[in-house]
Amino acid sequence: MDVYDGDHNKARxxxxxxxxxxxxxxxxxxxxxxxxxSWVHLHGDKDNxxxxxxxxxxxxxxxxxxxxxxxxxxxxxxxxxxxxxxxAVEIRKAENVSDHVPIVLTLK
Length: 108
Fold this sequence. Notes:
Mean pLDDT: 83
Low-confidence stretches: none
CATH topology: Deoxyribonuclease I, Chain A
Helix content: 25-40%
Strand order of the largest sheet: 1-2
Number of strands: 4
Largest sheet: 2 strands, antiparallel
Order of helices and strands: HHEHHEEE
Distance between the termini: 28 Å
CATH class: Alpha Beta
Number of helices: 4
Structural class: alpha+beta
Number of domains: 1
Shape: globular
CATH superfamily: Endonuclease/exonuclease/phosphatase
Radius of gyration: 14 Å
CATH architecture: 4-Layer Sandwich
């Protein structure tokens, strides 16, 4: 769900973020310590693939941001004890300082 072309990139094991060891290590850290993906917790994990709202990175090649064909590379994972204090997670797509955009976590 985190990449507009995820199935294609899964087959390319040299693509950063898709190497088997990267995916396994991130998954193990989250599952072993029961970390919570704050974006998914608040917004669910079923984003519209034709109009994803969760992207935080777009390649500058082929003007991918204007096509909204990006990846979610930036996360806030939190401990379960912080979940009751989770108020908002905002992806600031309007910011245009690099190929990544800020993601802001608000706790109450």
